[in-house]
Backbone:
C-alpha cells in the first residue's frame, strides 16, 4: 500500500513538473517575444545594425535555401533576418492570425490579387522602389495601380515525364492518354502520379478546364453568378473523363505524400507526375539516370503549358518605418545583388521574372517552362482567380471522395465540383 | 474561517480569477458580440450588424449539421470505450497482479503525450505499420490504412482517443475503488458472496461518484476534441471526420466568416454545457451514501 502510494505520488509529481515546465517555457518565450516587439522600435533608431526583419512565406520547397540566403545577408549587412516556417496549406490563415495580433512578419508572400485585396491595409506600396523596375512586363502584382508585390519567378506545371518511358505523342490528346495509362497499368507502373496535398491532388490539375477557356476571367464570373455550370461545359466534361481514367489506372494518390510522389518518379515507379518546375529541387536530391521534361496537359488537345506567377514578395506596411526600410533593403538586395541572383536561379530554382537576372543554366523542367513562355505557348493560371481558399476547403474533400469511391464517375465528380463552387461563393 | 487565513485565501484566488476572467470570460463575451456581425476577420474591414441571422443560417449549413452528427456518434462510441477500458484497467491494477504498478504507469503514460504528437504517431502506425502487417499476414480486411476509409477513419479516432484518455479515467476509478471500505468487502466475503457479486452489489454502486467525474470528463473532452482530430485525420477523408470544433475553426479561418463561425461556437458551447450538466445531474442522483 505504502509503495503504491509512493509510486502514484511520484507519478503525479512528474505530471505536475511536466505541466509546470511546459507552462514555464511558454510564458518565457512569449515574454521575450513581446519584449522585443515593444523595445524593438527604440533600439532601431539608436543602432541600425540591431535591425531585425522577419520573413513568412508559403513556399515550403525553398525554406532551407531562404534561410541560407538570410544568413548570407546577415553576414554582409549585420541585419538579422528570421525566416518563419509553415507547412504551406494553411499559410494564408496563419498570416492573417499573425497580422491581426500585431505579430505579423515584415515580409510575407501573396499568391494573387485577391489576397492583396484582402490585406490591402497591410500591403506596402513598392511602386517607387528601384528594384521594381526590373520586373518583367505584366508580371508584377498590382493593386489599384500600385505595385505591391515582386514575383518570386515565373513557374509552370504540367506532365513531368520520364523520357525513357513516355514520348510526347503518347499524351497528345485524350485517346492517346487513355492508351498510355492503360499500357502502364498493365505493366505495373504508375502512369500519372498525384500526391495527397490539396494543390498536388486537385488544385493545379483543376486549372486546365478553366485556363483553356477563351476568357477565363469572364468564365469564372459567369460560373459564380450561376449563368453556366461546369457540368454543361465541354472542357469540364472531358476533364471528368481524364480524372476517371487517372483514377482507374493508377494507385490512390491519397496515400502518397509530396516526397513519395517525387521519390517514386525518380525511382522509375511512376512514368509521369503532375508537377511544376519547382519539383526539380527535390528531384535532384535523388539519383536518377534518365532525362526528364515537361509536357502540356492534353485536355481537348491542349498543347500549351500553364505558366504564371505563383508567389509574390510583399512588405508589411503596418510595421514601423525602420523595419519597412530594412525589409525594402532586403528585397532590393535580393533582386539586384549577385548573391541574390544566384539564389533565385540556382538555389530556389526559379525561372526569373526579373529582367536584370540572367536565367543562366536552367534545370530541364524550368527550361521547358521558359521555352514555352518564350514561344508564347502558354495558358494562364486560373487558380489565381478562384474564390479564396476554395482548393483546400471545397475542392479537396470532393477529390478525396472521388478517389476513395471506386464507382464514382468523372461526371459525378464534376457535379460535385459545381456544388463545391456554389458553396465557396455563397 | 480564521481571520489570518483570509489573506492567504485572497492571495491564492485572486491571480486565478484574473487569469480566468482575461482568457475565458472576456473572450467569451467578445465572441457573443461578434456572432451578431458579418465580418471577415480582418481588423481594417467593416463589420456589418446582422442580428440573429447567423444563428438562423446555422440550420441550413449541411456541413455543420453533418459534423454535429459525426461528433455525436464519435462521442457516444468514445465515452463507452474509454470508460470500459479505464474501469477494466483500474480493476486489474488494484487486484493482486504482480505487474500492477508497471501496468498502471504504462496505461497512464499516453495521457502525458500531447494530442498533436499522438495523432502524428498514430498516423504513421495506420499508414505504414498497418499496411505492412496487412501485406505480410494477408489480413488486409483489418490491417489497412483506416485513415483513408470514410467509415473507418472515425473508428480510428475513437481508438486513438481511447488510448489517450483511458489511463486518465483509470486513475479516477482507482481512487474510487480504493475508497471502498475493506470491512464491507470482508463482511460480504464471510457471507459467501462471489467476486462478481461483490463487484456488482458493493463496488459498483460505491463507484458512482467516480462515474460522475469520469463520464463528465470523457463526455466534454470527446465533444470538444480538436488536436487529435487535426493531426490524425485533418477532418478527412472528404470531411468524414470533421468534428464540431474543427468545423468552427474551418468556418472562421478557412472561409474567413468570423461572425458566422462565432455563432457556431456559441451554439457549441450551449450544447456541450447542456449535455454535460444533464449527465452530471443524472449520475449524481444515482450516487449512494455510505
Residues:
Amino acid at each position: 500500500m505504502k509503495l503504491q502510494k509512493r509510486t502514484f505520488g511520484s507519478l503525479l509529481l512528474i505530471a505536475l513538473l511536466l505541466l509546470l515546465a511546459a507552462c514555464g517555457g511558454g510564458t518565457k518565450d512569449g515574454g521575450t517575444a513581446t519584449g522585443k516587439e515593444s523595445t524593438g522600435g527604440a533600439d532601431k533608431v539608436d543602432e541600425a545594425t540591431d535591425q531585425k526583419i522577419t520573413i513568412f512565406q508559403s513556399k515550403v520547397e525553398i525554406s532551407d535555401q531562404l534561410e541560407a540566403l538570410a544568413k548570407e545577408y546577415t553576414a554582409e549587412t549585420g541585419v538579422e533576418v528570421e525566416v518563419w516556417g509553415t507547412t504551406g496549406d494553411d499559410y494564408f490563415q496563419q498570416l492573417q492570425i499573425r497580422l491581426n495580433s500585431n505579430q505579423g512578419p515584415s515580409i510575407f508572400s501573396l499568391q494573387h490579387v485577391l489576397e492583396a485585396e484582402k490585406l490591402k491595409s497591410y500591403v506596402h506600396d513598392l511602386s517607387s522602389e528601384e528594384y521594381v523596375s526590373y520586373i518583367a512586363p505584366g508580371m508584377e502584382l498590382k493593386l489599384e495601380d500600385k505595385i505591391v508585390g515582386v514575383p518570386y519567378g515565373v513557374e509552370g506545371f504540367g506532365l513531368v515525364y520520364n523520357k525513357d518511358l513516355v514520348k510526347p505523342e503518347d499524351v497528345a490528346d485524350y485517346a492517346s492518354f487513355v492508351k498510355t495509362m492503360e499500357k502502364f497499368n498493365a505493366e505495373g507502373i504508375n502512369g500519372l502520379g498525384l500526391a495527397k496535398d490539396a494543390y498536388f491532388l486537385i488544385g493545379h490539375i483543376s486549372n486546365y478546364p478553366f485556363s483553356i477557356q477563351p476568357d477565363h476571367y469572364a468564365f469564372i464570373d459567369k460560373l459564380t453568378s450561376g449563368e453556366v455550370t461546369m457540368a454543361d461545359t465541354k472542357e469540364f466534361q472531358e476533364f471528368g473523363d481524364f480524372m476517371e481514367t487517372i483514377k482507374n489506372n493508377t494507385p490512390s494518390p491519397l496515400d502518397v505524400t509530396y516526397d513519395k510522389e517525387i521519390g517514386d518518379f525518380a525511382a522509375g515507379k511512376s512514368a509521369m507526375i503532375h508537377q511544376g518546375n519547382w519539383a526539380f529541387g527535390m528531384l535532384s536530391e535523388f539519383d536518377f539516370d534518365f532525362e526528364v521534361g515537361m509536357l502540356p496537359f492534353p485536355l481537348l488537345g491542349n498543347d500549351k503549358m500553364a505558366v504564371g506567377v505563383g508567389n509574390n514578395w510583399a512588405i508589411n506596411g503596418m510595421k514601423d518605418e525602420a523595419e519597412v526600410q530594412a525589409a525594402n533593403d532586403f528585397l532590393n538586395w535580393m533582386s539586384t545583388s549577385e548573391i541574390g541572383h544566384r539564389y533565385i536561379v540556382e538555389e530556389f530554382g526559379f525561372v526569373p521574372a526579373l529582367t536584370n537576372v540572367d536565367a543562366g543554366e536552367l534545370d530541364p523542367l524550368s527550361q521547358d517552362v521558359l521555352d514555352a513562355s518564350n514561344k508564347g505557348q502558354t495558358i494562364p493560371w486560373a487558380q489565381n482567380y478562384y474564390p479564396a481558399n476554395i482548393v483546400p476547403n471545397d475542392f479537396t474533400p470532393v477529390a478525396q471522395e472521388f478517389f476513395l469511391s471506386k464507382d464514382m464517375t468523372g461526371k459525378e465528380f464534376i457535379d460535385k465540383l459545381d456544388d463545391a463552387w456554389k458553396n465557396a461563393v455563397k | 474561517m480564521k481571520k489570518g487565513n483570509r489573506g492567504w485565501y485572497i492571495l491564492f484566488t485572486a491571480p486565478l480569477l484574473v487569469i480566468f476572467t482575461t482568457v475565458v470570460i472576456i473572450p467569451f463575451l467578445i465572441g457573443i458580440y461578434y456572432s451578431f456581425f458579418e465580418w471577415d476577420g480582418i481588423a481594417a474591414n467593416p463589420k456589418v450588424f446582422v442580428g440573429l441571422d447567423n444563428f438562423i443560417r446555422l440550420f441550413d449549413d449541411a456541413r455543420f449539421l453533418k459534423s454535429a452528427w459525426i461528433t455525436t456518434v464519435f462521442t457516444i462510441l468514445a465515452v463507452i470505450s474509454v470508460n470500459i477500458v479505464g474501469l477494466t484497467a483500474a480493476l486489474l491494477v488494484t487486484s493482486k497482479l504482480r505487474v500492477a504498478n508497471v501496468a498502471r504507469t504504462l496505461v497512464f503514460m499516453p495521457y502525458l503525450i500531447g494530442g498533436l504528437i499522438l495523432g502524428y504517431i498514430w498516423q504513421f502506425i495506420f499508414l505504414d505499420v498497418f499496411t505492412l502487417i496487412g501485406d505480410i499476414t494477408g489480413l488486409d480486411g483489418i490491417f489497412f490504412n483506416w485513415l483513408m476509409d470514410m467509415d473507418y477513419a472515425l473508428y480510428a479516432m475513437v481508438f486513438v482517443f481511447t488510448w489517450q484518455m483511458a489511463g486518465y479515467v483509470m486513475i479516477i476509478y482507482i481512487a474510487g475503488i480504493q475508497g471502498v471500505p475493506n470491512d464491507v468487502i470482508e463482511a460480504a466475503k464471510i457471507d459467501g458472496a462471489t467476486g462478481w457479486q461483490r463487484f456488482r452489489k458493493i463496488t459498483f454502486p460505491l463507484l458512482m461518484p467516480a462515474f460522475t467525474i469520469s463520464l463528465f470528463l470523457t463526455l466534454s473532452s470527446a465533444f470538444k476534441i480538436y488536436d487529435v482530430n487535426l493531426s490524425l485525420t485533418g477532418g478527412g477523408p472528404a470531411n468524414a471526420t470533421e468534428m464540431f470544433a474543427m468545423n468552427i475553426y474551418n468556418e472562421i479561418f478557412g472561409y474567413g466568416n468570423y461572425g458566422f463561425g462565432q455563432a457556431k461556437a456559441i451554439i457549441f458551447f450551449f450544447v456541450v454545457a447542456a449535455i454535460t450538466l444533464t449527465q452530471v445531474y443524472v449520475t449524481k442522483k444515482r450516487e449512494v451514501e455510505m
User: Anything to note?
Assistant: The mean pLDDT of chain B is 88. The radius of gyration of chain B is 23 Å. The CA atoms of residues 81 and 162 of chain B lie 6 Å apart. Chain B has twelve helices and two strands.
